[in-house]
Specification:
The complex is a heterodimer of chains A (116) and B (112).
Chain A lengths: L3 E2 L4 E5 L4 E3 L2 E2 L6 E8 L6 E7 L7 E2 L2 E6 L4 E6 L8 E9 L8 E2 L3 E6 L1
Parallel strand pairs in A: 2-12
Antiparallel strand pairs in A: 1-4, 3-9, 5-6, 5-10, 7-8, 8-9, 10-11, 10-12
Chain B lengths: L4 E3 L2 E4 L5 E6 L6 E8 L3 E9 L2 E4 L8 E7 L2 E6 L8 E8 L6 E2 L3 E5 L1
Parallel strand pairs in B: 2-11
Antiparallel strand pairs in B: 1-3, 3-8, 4-5, 4-9, 5-6, 7-8, 9-10, 9-11
The chains are: A mainly beta (116), B mainly beta (112).
Chain lengths: 116, 112
Amino acid sequence: AQKITQTQPGMFVQEKEAVTLDCTYDTSDPSYGLFWYKQPSSGEMIFLIYQGSYDQQNATEGRYSLNFQKARKSANLVISASQLGDSAMYFCAMREGNFGNEKLTFGTGTRLTIIP
Amino acid sequence: DARVTQTPRHKVTEMGQEVTMRCQPILGHNTVFWYRQTMMQGLELLAYFRNRAPLDDSGMPKDRFSAEMPDATLATLKIQPSEPRDSAVYFCASGLGSDTQYFGPGTRLTVL
C-alpha cells in the first residue's frame, strides 16, 4: 500500500483563487509528521509546512495552511490567494515514528499551474 | 541564511566512469540524506546518516553506489561504474534529528 497518496497529478487554478492540494497517508504509528515541499521549475525542493500527529491545531505558514484531518488520514495543503509564483510541483511527505526515525516517504506530487 | 550546498550542479559523463557528488550540510545539523529523483520513480531515499554514522542505505544499489561522511561538513555519494539508468537528479538534505529536512539544489547527472 502507498504510504502517501496524492491523487491530483495536475491542477489549473486562476490567479488569486484559493487552492487545495490533496494528500492522504497510511500509517499505524501513532506518532508521525507530515510535510509539504514545493519544487519550482528551477528544481530545488523548498520546505513549506509541517504538521505533527499530536498537534492540536492545523499548521499555518503565511499563505499556506495544512488541513489536518486525523481520522480521515488526510493532510491537504491550502494556498490562499494564489500567485503566479505558486506554479510548481508540490510534494507531500511523511515521517513515521519520532525519535530514531528520520526517513521521509514522498508522494508522487501534484503539478500546480496558476493561470493569470 | 544557512543552506545545504551540493557540487557539482550538473554532471555529464560516459557509461563506466566514476561519479562523485558532494554535499555540505547545514552547520549543526546531525542528519544527512541522499535522495534520487526520476520521472519514473519519483523521490527515493538512497541513504542517510545520523551523527556521521550510516543508518540506512537499503535504497542504494550496493554494487555500484557508496555513501560516506568523512567529516561533519562533507557527505559524498559515489557511483562506480556509472550506467545510463543512473541518470537522475540527486538531492542531499540535512536536518536536526527528526525535524524538518532542508534540501540542497541537487546534482543533475546524465550518463551517456
